[in-house]
Design goal:
Number of helices: 4
Number of strands: 0
Order of helices and strands: HHHH
Distance between the termini: 7 Å
Radius of gyration: 12 Å
């Protein structure tokens, strides 16, 4: 659940911090095993960072899907919409 006083979470910032790379080096086309040390270990860091940023628990099935920035952006939008419905 997000607070109306807090700005929306930028998924690019979350992933960049998790992978310790510049935010500007990521694009919608960025993906696991393609960019910035986003290997299996980096993916764990990305998932943990997403869970903390959005206050959710990501299922194993979703972990397997969230391997591209495009998928993470879509996840971010769904999480934001779910948070708004819960308020």
């Amino acid at each position: 659940m997000t607070s109306p006083d807090l700005p929306p979470v930028d998924p690019f910032v979350v992933v960049a911090q998790a992978l310790r790379c510049p935010r500007g080096s990521l694009s919608v086309e960025s993906a696991m095993y393609k960019d910035h040390g986003w290997d299996s270990f980096g993916h764990v860091s990305v998932i943990v960072a997403l869970e903390k940023a959005y206050g959710v628990c990501i299922s194993n099935d979703e972990v397997m899907i969230l391997t591209t920035m495009k998928a993470i952006i879509e996840f971010s939008q769904r999480s934001r919409e779910a948070g708004q419905r819960d308020e």
